[in-house]
Amino acid sequence: MNKTLILTALLLLSVFTGISQKHNYKVGLIGFYNLENLYDTIDNPLINDDEFLPNSERHYNTHVYFDKLEHLSTVLSQIGTDISPDGLALVGVAEVENIQVMIDLCNTAKLKSRNLKIEHYDSPDKRGVDVGLIYNPKYFKVLNSAPLFVQLPGGSKDSYFTRDILYVKGIFARDTIHVFVNHWPSRVGGEERSIPARAAAAGVARAKMDSILAQDINSKIVLMGDLNDDPISPSLTKTLKASGNLSKIKTGDIYNPWVEFYKKGLGTLADQDSWGLFDQIVISSAWLDKEQKGMFYNKAVIFNQQFMVQKTGKFRGYAKRTWDGMTYNYGYSDHFPTYLVFLKRVD
């Protein structure tokens, strides 16, 4: 083994902090965060970004843009650092206009030292918002990636196009894993009317997952995103076939750790004083065996620190959003981020 490989191995062991109980473990964290309309200030004639320009009613100028980046980096830099010093190994994001805003976010003072990398494709969404993956190359190596197009059924949404699903295959602590980053169609226009649109997105993801599992039923899959549905919604339970009943999960099934959170009234965003849990991360059964040599699932967390909570006004108690109507609210996002903790036993 050459000096570079030896150094890499030592870094890996030092970065994955040990948790001492009966055994020692390496730790890896995978998260998701809806960044709430992270646009740049430059007019893009190919999309509808008029409300996020300097001459708009929002007065979305350079100062506001960089202040928002600073707020988002504050959150991202803290997620999971009580478990692992580097925080998230990889994090899916939603509502980003383009790859440049992701680059600017990764170059903020609080994140720059992590040398984060990005996977992103432009989507056909009318508003120009995409999904992306930000990852720490200490923990994750990309093998390949692709956008998955979602064909919306007629009449389900006013907009014909929606966000692509980002698919990324890579190496995570020596495990080959498959990551899906989603932002399923919203409920604008009515929840019932838009159900078929979210079912279409869930169907695209499920079809790709089935093709992966057909080749290896023990494949490690992580599907994350702002799904615009709760854990008990049909798009999750019927189309994606994700279950929260751990005792009934069989080989090749999909486990949803957020069902119990939802039943307890916990959520990631609020509307009319009711909490929803749209920001979910679900996993294939291969993650669940705690006796395996590779990474295994440990727990799920909603990251909702007090500094991220609105203290006053009509949104008191909600996630402190970027905007209150058209007024800049000096917030973070109207969604709380979520993440999963994975462990790997170290002999």
In short:
By secondary structure, the protein is α+β, with helices and mostly antiparallel strands. The chain has helices at 3-15, 62-78, 99-106, 191-215, 234-239, 259-263, and strands spanning 24-38, 90-96, 117-120, 130-135, 140-148, 165-172, 175-183, 220-226, 242-243, 254-255, 269-271, 274-276, 279-284, 296-302, 323-324, 327-328, 338-346.
Spatial strand order of the main sheet? 5-6-7-8-13-10-9
CATH class: Alpha Beta
CATH homology superfamily? Endonuclease/exonuclease/phosphatase
Computed over alpha carbons, the radius of gyration is 20 Å
CATH topology: Deoxyribonuclease I, Chain A
Structural class, please?
alpha+beta
Instruction: Give start-end ranges of low-pLDDT stretches.
Output: 1-21
What does the average pLDDT come to? 92
User: How many helices does DSSP assign?
Assistant: 6
The helix fraction, in percent, is 10-25%
Helix and strand string, N-terminal first? HEHEHEEEEEHEHEEHEEEEEEE
Distance between the termini: 20 Å
Query: What is the β-strand count?
Result: 17
Number of domains: 1
Overall shape: globular
